[in-house]
Amino acid sequence: LVERCVDEQISPLVEAVLASFSMISRHPCGNYVVQHLLSHAAPEHRHHLSQLVECEVRGLATDCFGGAVVSGALSTAPMEVQVSIARALVREEVLDLIACTPHGHIAAIRALQVLEGSEQEEARQILLAGESTLQASKWGSLVLRSL
């Protein structure tokens, strides 16, 4: 429904989500609301939500439902924000953790796609350093195959 509403109709919902972003992003149903807003809300709302994903990437990456929000942001946010989120996954040392989760493995693969040069190589090395852990995980092994 969000994509069919005007900004004035959606703004109160976005403000409520922004106020409780961390909790809603980790909720079994709430994470879908955040993902939908990341895809369909007004550009300024998507930008605010994407910035929150970047700021809270450590906590989101270690949560099953939060990982889905990170994956959603890495798929729908503007490219410069995607790169910032991918860098945050590396900087916060959670790339290997998110790679082993059902929703988060998509974020790890996407991070590898959006990073370039030495940043991409650093991300690859982090994942390769945890190869045995990734190999033991159904989702992590998918990430390893993408290297």
Model description:
The mean pLDDT is 93. The protein has 147 residues and is mostly helical. The protein is built from 12 helices and no strands. Helix 6 (64-76) packs parallel to helix 9 (104-114). The N and C termini lie far apart (37 Å).
Query: What's the helical proportion of residues?
Result: over 70%
The value of Rg in angstroms is 15 Å
- Average per-residue pLDDT, rounded, comes to 93
Strand content is under 5%
| Shape descriptor | elongated
Counting helices, strands and paired strands, the structural category is: mainly alpha
How many β strands by DSSP?
0
The H/E string reads HHHHHHHHHHHH
Major sheet size, sense and barrel closure:
none
The protein's oligomeric status is single chain
List keywords for this structure.
mainly alpha; 12 helices; 0% strand; 147 residues
Short description:
The chain is mainly alpha-helical and 147 residues long. It has helices at 7-19, 21-25, 30-40, 43-55, 57-61, 64-76, 79-91, 95-98, 104-114, 117-129, 131-135, 138-146.
List strands and helices in order, with pairings.
Blueprint: H1 7-19, H2 21-25, H3 30-40, H4 43-55, H5 57-61, H6 64-76, H7 79-91, H8 95-98, H9 104-114, H10 117-129, H11 131-135, H12 138-146
